[in-house]
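Lecture notes, part 5. Sequence design as translation. It can be helpful to think of inverse folding as translation between two languages: the language of shapes and the language of residues. The source text, in structure tokens, appears below.
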């Protein structure tokens, strides 16, 4: 197995773990989690896992307009979001009272990104990548709040 194949295998394991632990109100977030890109060239071998943009808000939490303290997820790659008084209420098909409540009270963190990566990497992930020839592993998150990149 080469590094690209090992990274794909580990990426699929992380995707499966994230899908099983992601908040599942409608299933939209769970179904959006996927390996979106693998780059393999002389400079680097990277894998990108993507999801709906609001996944980061679910993972990190969001402060509401009335609840400005909030409790952040210390293991999240992302900063806790904040609804401001100027912020438009979230859309979607949630009932109006639920959307108002989210705007005012925020969202408590529901950690699923980093715990999924840790579980896979502390399990077979590192072993698979080492066997494939990786000498270092770096995990980063884009500011776009929807991609997690793993470099081997």
């Amino acid at each position: 197995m080469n590094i690209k194949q090992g990274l794909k295998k580990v990426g699929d394991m992380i995707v499966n773990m994230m899908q099983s632990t992601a908040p599942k109100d409608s299933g939209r977030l769970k179904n959006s989690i996927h390996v979106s890109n693998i780059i393999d060239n002389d400079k680097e071998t990277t894998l990108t896992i993507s999801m709906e943009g609001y996944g980061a808000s679910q993972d990190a939490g969001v402060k509401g307009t009335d609840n400005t303290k909030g409790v952040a997820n210390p293991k999240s790659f992302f900063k806790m979001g904040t609804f401001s008084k100027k912020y438009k209420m979230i859309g979607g098909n949630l009932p109006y009272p639920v959307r108002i409540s989210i705007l005012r009270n925020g969202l408590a963190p529901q950690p699923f990104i980093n715990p999924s990566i840790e579980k896979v990497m502390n399990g077979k992930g590192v072993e698979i990548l080492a066997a494939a020839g990786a000498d270092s592993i770096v995990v980063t998150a884009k500011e776009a709040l929807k991609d997690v990149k793993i470099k081997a």
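The translated text above is only one of many valid answers, since several sequences can fold into similar shapes. The chain is about 40% helix and 20% strand.
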